[in-house]
Amino acid sequence: MRLVHIADLHAGKTLGKVSRNPDLHHALAQIESFIRENRVDLVLIAGDVFDKANPDNESKELIFDFFLKLKEIGSQAAVVAGNHDSYDFMKSIRGISSLANVHIYDRPSSKRAFFTFGDLKIACLPYPSERLITSAGEDSKKKYAELVEKFIRFLAKGVEGAKYRILLAHLFVAGSVYTSTEKEATLSDNYAVQPSALSDGFDYVALGHVHKHQKLKGVDCPAYYVGTPYPLDFSEAQDGKFFNFILLEGDLPKVEAVPLSVKNPLYSFKLRQSEVLKKLPDLEELTGYIKVTVEVERGDTLGAVTERLRSALRERLLRVEFVFKEEKRSQLPKLSSLDPLSAYMTYYKSVHGGEMPQSVKEVFLELLSRAEG
Ligand SMILES: [Mn+2]
Fold it and tell me: Where are the alpha helices (DSSP H) in the chain?
């Protein structure tokens, strides 16, 4: 049996004003071709299908077209909801998606948790939200991990005896390496499930939630995060993108990470203010989206630097940030020890290199009095 494992599609993701849907579309087209050419029987989709709880129409069309394409190819799919997906929205599309042989598991449930496909039995664990699992007043973080681990033992029991057993889950497992685009609060180690909880009873663990492709350590069977199929954000700019191809045959599953090409790569550069213009021709060569962090040397030309970057790179320049050299920052008095006007004057001087004009001072005081009033 041939399987493909994907996750974290995040349809509807935007970066500034730019939609990442063309990049998702580009990734899904490659996955579709692979499924067709390799006669894949089943696609595992490990959550965060959509980026938002109420997806926009374009994103829905993109995902539903993908489901229809799978149907046309003759492949089925099992999907669990992620933390970005709304349980209720995923429930609302369950019936219609099943017509395309896409089987959606919208929320953790002991009544509806298993999908049987020939010799294979899949235990489905949509994102177990803290609110769903624990109630206020308990030692909630410890309790959370304990309850999720207990539920995983129940799932393992449910697939016992099947020739092949898979856990399909959207979940944070302790020890995995994450970026900064998964929602922060859900990644604290406090809420993490221990890898040992996944060790018994499965032949493959298909995970979603962490955006970097990786094989988990400390689990007896192959357990993978496949990551996002395209870089969502500049923090993922350097990561290679993959999906997994799994061959279930004989005793041990064979797993292959298949690389994906990226439509609009993301580039993040940190440049000293004085080298920006020198580097500009190189940046102009790039296709994709660019973030520039400028290490400030003198404040008075910052506007001109930004203007040059914008006019050269146009819509490819998504973000410009300024940082101050460490030594310059440490010379500053502690802002919290100053009154608001002195703090702002200190900040102004560090950015612009000169004293604050009287007119700016007056506007600041006017705003301050309005804010305090
Ligand atoms: Mn995600």
Answer: 21-37, 57-73, 87-92, 94-98, 130-133, 140-158, 276-284, 302-313, 326-331, 340-352, 358-372
Whole-number Cα distances in Å, 331 to 298, 334, 346: 15, 9, 11
The two structure tokens encoding residue 327: 């030594």
Q: How far is the CA of 7 from the centre of ligand 1 (A)?
A: 8
Backbone angles phi, psi at 107, to 5 degrees: -155, 155
The model's pLDDT over 139-168, given as tens digits with 9 standing for 90+, comes to 677 788 889 999 999 999 999 999 999 999
CA of 19 to the centre of ligand 1 (A): 16
Determine the distance separating the centroid of ligand 1 and the alpha carbon of 261, expressed in angstroms. 19
Q: What is the pLDDT of residue 343?
A: 83
CA of 370 to the centre of ligand 1 (A): 41
pLDDT tens column, 68-98: 999 999 999 999 999 999 999 999 999 999 9
Render 304-322 in DSSP notation, one character per residue: HHHHHHHHHHGGGEEEEEE
Q: Which two tokens stand for residue 34?
A: 């692979």
For 296-313, b/e burial (b = at least 16 CB within 10 A) is: beebebbeebbeebeeeb
Structure confidence at residue 183 (pLDDT): 60
Distance (Å) of CA 186 to CA 61, 180, 212? 28, 11, 16
Q: Answer yes or no: is pLDDT of 227 > 80.
A: yes
CATH topology of domain 2-259: Purple Acid Phosphatase; chain A, domain 2 (3.60.21)
Backbone angle region of 209, left / alpha / beta, with phi > 0 → left and psi within -120 to 50 → alpha? left
Report CA(232)–ligand 1 centroid distance (Å).
9
Instruction: Please give the model's pTM, rounded to 2 decimal places.
Output: 0.84
Torsions phi, psi for 269 (to 5 deg): -120, 140
Amino acid letter for position 40: V
Give all strands of the β-sheet with 164-170 in edge-to-edge order.
114-117, 120-125, 164-170, 204-208, 223-225, 214-215
**Centroid of ligand 1 to alpha carbon of 24 (angstroms):** 13
How far, in Å, is the centroid of ligand 1 from the Cα of 179? 10
